[in-house]
Design a protein that fits this description.
single chain; alpha+beta; two-stranded antiparallel ribbon; 1 helix; 2 strands
Length: 68
Amino acid sequence: LGLAVMVGLRMDFSMLLEPLGFVKVLEWVLAIFVFATCGGFHGETALLVSCKDVVNKTITATFAYPFR
């Protein structure tokens, strides 16, 4: 029964009273929220190639990154 005595946990929240400390906590909360709700990312990029006396040609590349 040696674990029956609980040690009090002391936390210092004085850093939250300063603007930089508050912003850090806000950054962590928002980062967790963003990664929890983000299901993936996909996009497309295009490049228009034009040479003298040649018909313009568009080259497209699609990319995706699933967060799974």
